[in-house]
Amino acid sequence: MQAPRPPLPGWSRFLLHACVVLAFLVVTGTADAQKLPRLTLAGPSAAVSNPLIHMVDSGALADVAEVVEFVPWRDPDQLRVMALDGRADVLAMPTNVAANLYNRGAKLRMLNVSTWGVLWLVSRDPALKSLADLRGKELAMPFRGDMPDIVFQLLAEQQGMDVRKDLSLRYVASPIDAMQLLVMRRVDHALLAEPAVSMALRKTGSFPISVIAPELHRSVDLQQEWGRVFARATRIPQAGIAVMGALRERPDVVARIEAEYAGSLAWCRANAEACGRGVAARIDLLTPEAVADSIAVSQMEAVPVQAARAELEFMFGQLVKKNPALVGGKLPDDGFYGGAAKP
After folding, report:
1. The model scores a pTM over 0.90
2. Residue 343 to residues 13, 39, 248, 250: CA-CA distances in angstroms?
3. Positive or negative, the Cα torsion across 325, 149, 175, 169?
4. 286-299 per-position pLDDT tens digit
């Protein structure tokens, strides 16, 4: 009988095990080790996109994808096409649009809510202090049937106003379009989202605030109105980022995107002027100064979507009462609230 072989030394066993594991990885590959050929981040000309732009400019995800790009979308219709046609991997969008798309079958999971306070009424009338003061007046309103229109209507109706009878709403494609109407004196009042508010104030010489008689006034803060009317915190879960399509099944990449977005948002808050230059270089209609101004006054915080769920569901519940179609007919289920898809 042949004598049994002596056991391999410890270092030999370790080396053999390492070689077997390495060979397995080479042959089979792993999803987490695969670098993406392209990663497309998309968003509007609004504060929610600032961190996405910085992520691209800083090379924060250079090890995740061969090419990382930022693509702007102009209006919710273009956003919906991008989402349904798979033209972006990460989409910054209003939260109600995300819920609507999800409930209609889009391959989408919300990752965070980062925009909590960017909506203001801007007016030529220094005496305008409340929504009730708008009775009988014309108001430029961007994004018909989407944020910020639906927030304004909720608040107005809670205060006993009939928007169709008490106001003349002039709908336009975007906050930038509403801002331009103000600057050209074609309207006296507009509901704007930052940085369009700061753009309007800059363009009309209404900045700095030490100007004795500015042309335009930052009047009603809709976040304050939300808190007052609904007896809640003075912030609204307005927008965030969502991961799309196959990217939902890459928890490693999703976790990186979540972390890098939060880091870039913090960087933008601490470096407003530099952030403004980067954003203005990507979005032609914006100026570095206005973007920096907007960062100083906007409520921006990257809150993971699970932590924001209670505030989202309160807002979605108000929308369902008003018109269920605004969120796709119902509150989104658990699958909406998370980054990576479970295996």
Report:
1. no
2. 33, 22, 10, 10
3. positive
4. 999 999 999 999 99
